[in-house]
């Protein structure tokens, strides 16, 4: 092992895996879990007849990272390695890729698709794999794709169906599942072990070596006294009160304190109720109240002008979409107060004190000629953009030599980064042309980010797993981990709770490790049996829900103006991903806007223009047109922008998978027979 470059503690945690046992390696961030997994894979390939190793990751960018940084350098000379992600062609003939390779590194979704796909070139069986490595395996729970893969495994194991791969899980923290007492935390760890059919191992004999290799950062609570006066926030609350009075709240409605996540949850439910009851006044007021509440949350975390701009942006579109008196009142209220709000937002005497504290934390680590690297974690993509703008326009931070950039998740939405943009940003950070990443949770786990002197958590309420992952980014000697928060506020309380939960996780794992082999295996098998039974019940309930109504009995309404625009039977499912309206008459109900530009291209389709409701001044966004197979122009609809009328009344759903009727698959042939019958004469 020494010739491979493993530390002694890494050698200790892989021992049982080298004997062919299913295990979860529990080591902190920076402890070298992936390197240990590469060593297990190498030994497995050397000693197992017809060995086939598949490495699963939960984020696209990790496919290339693990391939380039870890597996290829150590295994590439002797074995065939292939990285496969949604952005590479290998997924379309995944079965052949697995057959022709020794090691495949892919996202879990691609493996799950291959296990459930009937097409021979894409299909594989679990029995085709001899070692399955699962990175960040604490995500193997509930309906995660990791757990869907492992349910296939557990079901086959319980039925004793054929050979199954050896499992090797990797995690920095399985967490407690939100549990706060030891007994329940033990149950959570056992559930993770059951889901992965694995025992959990950590270093027992070489903990001092691990501590030396992965030092803990110096933690500071940089606590801020609350604003002595918040005139801007108070003015927003006054406007919200005027909306409350205008909407004449039903007597059974109780809204919690504004400027909180609880208030946001209340007004989301209120908007849904307005849609259900056909009460447009209630629905629209609730929608606007949510925007004011967002502004209060931004005001608490960022600059007052950031909060003002969020409202200004919202009302710049709303001013052109007035349908009735409710809209006129709501837009008018903002316009009447706009000048005063802007004036208050510019008054530096009442600025958010957290920003000044954040500035001082950064200036302690950065300065002219000082080589520092830092990550500033914030909650949303929007807040990372606001913080980046603040850094760029802050003279003291610029003079200190801070060169910042945003790092957010890769995805298909317009506001997401592309995978290449992520790679470029991290490369620039590693090379030193950037020294501060302003990041969402995407940088908490997995990403190959160089050692940092400073990690700051700013305006965050997350669990103990995210906290440990973020803390693990501060790997340089004498590095600092700072929590900037209001005195006695929720962020400070949550951070203290997370410290307790981190300690509780360690105690729970120790309890599980102390169990006899017989007791552990008995508990695991019981949990696995329960999980399979629960899964079947859930599937039956889902099927029942899907067949509750006939598609033809469902009407779709615009969620803004409540106009009937489609029938449920007009909707078809394209490639198991896109819900489109195939009724040619639907074009009468919408108008097109600007071209949609996504950060990546797709094999069978490309985005067209945005579509919105054409009823009067409504203009409610509905989705976009997509050109499918270079010929069919199909309106791709977001169900969150529509309401459903069922035989039992109106309802709303967040996602298409939750609609109470069956959506049939799109048939290219049927579509053209219906719309272009002359082609079939």
Key words describing this protein structure:
single chain; 21 helices; seven-stranded parallel sheet; 681 residues; 4 domains; phosphoenolpyruvate carboxylase, domain 3; 44% helix; alpha/beta; Rossmann fold; 24 strands; six-stranded parallel sheet
Question: How would you characterize this protein structure?
Answer:
The protein is of the alpha/beta class. The chain has 4 domains: 2-212 and 515-532, 3-Layer(aba) Sandwich (Rossmann fold); 218-226 and 352-508, Rossmann fold (3-Layer(aba) Sandwich), CATH 3.40.50.300; 245-339, phosphoenolpyruvate carboxylase, domain 3 (Up-down Bundle); 551-680, RIG-I-like receptor, C-terminal regulatory domain (Metal Binding Protein, Guanine Nucleotide Exchange Factor, Chain A, Beta Complex). Helices cover 44% and strands 17% of the residues. It has 21 helices and 24 strands. Strands 3-4-2-5-6-1-7 form a 7-stranded parallel β-sheet, sandwiched between helices. The protein has a 6-stranded parallel β-sheet with strand order 8-13-12-9-11-10, sandwiched between helices. The longest helix is centred in the C-terminal third of the chain and has 30 residues, at 517-546. It is globular. It starts with 7 loop residues before the first helix and ends in a 6-residue tail after the last helix. The mean pLDDT is 91.
């Amino acid at each position: 092992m020494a010739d491979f470059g493993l530390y002694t503690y890494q050698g200790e945690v892989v021992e049982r895996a080298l004997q062919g046992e299913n295990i979860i390696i529990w080591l902190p961030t920076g402890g070298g879990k992936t390197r240990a997994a590469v060593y297990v894979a190498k030994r497995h390939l050397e000693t197992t007849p017809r060995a086939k190793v598949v490495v699963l990751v939960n984020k696209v960018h990790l496919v290339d990272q693990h391939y380039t940084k870890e597996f290829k350098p150590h295994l590439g000379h002797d074995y065939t390695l292939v990285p496969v992600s949604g952005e590479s062609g290998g997924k379309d003939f995944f079965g052949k890729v697995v057959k022709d390779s020794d090691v495949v590194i892919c996202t879990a979704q691609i493996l799950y698709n291959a296990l459930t796909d009937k097409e021979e070139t894409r299909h594989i069986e679990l029995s085709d794999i001899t070692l399955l490595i699962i990175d960040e395996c604490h995500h193997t729970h509930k309906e995660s794709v990791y757990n869907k893969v492992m349910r296939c495994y557990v079901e086959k194991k319980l039925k004793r169906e054929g050979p199954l791969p050896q499992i090797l899980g990797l995690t920095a923290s399985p967490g407690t599942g939100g549990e706060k007492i030891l007994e329940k935390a033990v149950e959570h760890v056992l559930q993770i072990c059951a889901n992965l059919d694995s025992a959990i191992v950590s270093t027992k004999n070489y903990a001092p070596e691990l501590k030396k290799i992965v030092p803990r950062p110096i933690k500071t609570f940089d606590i801020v006294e609350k604003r002595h006066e918040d005139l801007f926030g108070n003015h927003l609350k006054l406007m919200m009160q005027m909306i409350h009075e205008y909407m004449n709240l039903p007597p059974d409605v109780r809204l919690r304190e504004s400027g909180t996540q609880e208030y946001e949850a209340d007004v989301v439910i209120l908007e849904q109720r307005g849609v259900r009851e056909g009460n447009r006044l209630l629905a629209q007021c609730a929608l606007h109240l949510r925007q004011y509440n967002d502004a209060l949350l931004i005001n608490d975390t960022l600059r007052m002008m950031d909060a003002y701009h969020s409202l200004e942006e919202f009302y710049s579109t709303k001013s052109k979409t007035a349908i009735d008196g409710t809209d006129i009142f709501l837009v008018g209220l903002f316009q009447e107060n706009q000048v005063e709000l802007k004036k208050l937002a510019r008054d530096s005497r009442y600025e958010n004190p957290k920003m000044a504290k954040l500035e001082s934390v950064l200036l302690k680590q950065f300065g002219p000629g000082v080589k520092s690297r830092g990550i500033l974690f914030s909650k949303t993509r929007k807040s990372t953009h606001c913080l980046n703008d603040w850094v760029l326009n802050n003279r003291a931070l610029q003079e200190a030599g801070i060169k910042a950039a945003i790092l957010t998740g890769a995805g298909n939405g317009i506001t997401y980064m592309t995978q290449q943009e992520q790679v470029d940003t991290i490369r620039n950070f590693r090379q030193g042309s950037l020294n501060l990443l302003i990041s969402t949770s995407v940088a908490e786990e997995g990403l190959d980010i160089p050692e940092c002197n400073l990690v700051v958590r700013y305006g965050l309420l997350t669990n103990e797993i995210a906290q440990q992952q973020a803390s693990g980014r501060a790997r340089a000697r004498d590095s600092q981990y700072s929590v900037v928060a209001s005195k006695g506020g929720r962020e400070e309380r949550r951070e203290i709770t997370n410290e307790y939960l981190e300690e509780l996780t360690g105690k729970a794992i120790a309890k599980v490790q102390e169990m006899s082999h017989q007791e552990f295996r008995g508990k695991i098998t019981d949990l696995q049996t329960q999980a399979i039974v629960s899964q079947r019940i859930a599937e039956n309930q889902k099927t029942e829900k899907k067949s509750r109504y006939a598609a033809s009995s469902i009407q779709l309404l615009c969620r803004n103006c409540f106009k009937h625009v489609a029938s449920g039977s007009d909707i078809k499912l394209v490639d198991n991903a896109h819900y489109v309206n195939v009724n040619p008459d639907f074009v009468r109900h919408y108008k097109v806007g600007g071209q949609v530009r996504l950060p990546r291209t797709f094999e069978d389709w490309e985005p067209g223009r945005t579509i919105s409701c054409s009823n009067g001044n409504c203009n409610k966004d509905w989705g976009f047109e997509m050109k499918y197979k270079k010929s069919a122009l199909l309106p791709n609809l977001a169900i969150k922008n529509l309401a459903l009328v069922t035989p039992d009344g109106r309802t709303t759903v967040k996602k298409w998978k939750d609609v109470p009727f069956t959506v049939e698959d799109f048939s290219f042939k049927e579509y053209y027979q219906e719309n272009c019958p002359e082609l079939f004469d």
